[in-house]
Structure formats: structure tokens, C-alpha cells
Amino acid sequence: MQRNKVSAVFTLARVAADLGADEDALFDIIVDMEPEDGLIWVHGLGDEACPAFTRDGIDEIKARIAARRAERDLLPSKP
Fold first, then answer.
1. Does the pTM exceed 0.85?
2. What sections of 7-54 are H helices per DSSP?
3. Do 47 and 66 meet the contact criterion of CB atoms below 8 Å apart?
């Protein structure tokens, strides 16, 4: 039986603070991430849940941020 070797996860709030990013902006970036990308959902009482990320997930977020910045730089300037 293969077991996942994840020993820690980091909440969206923590990742946003560490990256100096806005939580809402990060949420827009991670909305289509999957567990294979390093995203898991942590469920609390009732309907409370928050996204959390493995270290690979944080690397994925950084790559997505870089891709968005590069895409924005390739767009033509408005006159």
C-alpha cells in the first residue's frame, strides 16, 4: 500500500502572507487546482472548509503566479 508522505500543509492565509499576496487573488489562481497539484481541503465544524497546500502545492501556486505575470507582460499596452 502506497502512502502519501505529506507531513505538513499550509492554509491559504499562510501562503498569501508568505508570498505577500492577497488571499482573494490567490483564490482566483487556485480555483482549478486538484489534489494532484498539491491542494487539499481542510474541513472544520459545520460547512467550514479552507484550502490548504503541500509544499508542492505552494510551488504550483508560484508557477501559476509567474505564468499570469508573463501573460500580462505579453498583452499589448492600451493606448
1. no
2. 12-19, 23-30
3. no
Segments of 1-79 assigned E as strands:
10-11, 39-43, 49-53
Do 36 and 43 contact (CB within 8 A), yes or no?
Answer: no
Q: How far is CA 43 from the centre of its chain?
A: 17
* Confidence band of 79 (pLDDT split at 50, 70, 90): low
User: Do the bridges between strand 39-43 and strand 10-11 make them parallel or antiparallel, or are there none, so unpaired?
Assistant: unpaired
Q: Which helix (H) or strand (E) holds 11?
A: strand 10-11
Q: Write down how long the chain is.
A: 79
Amino acid occupying residue 41: W
Q: What type of residue is 1?
A: M
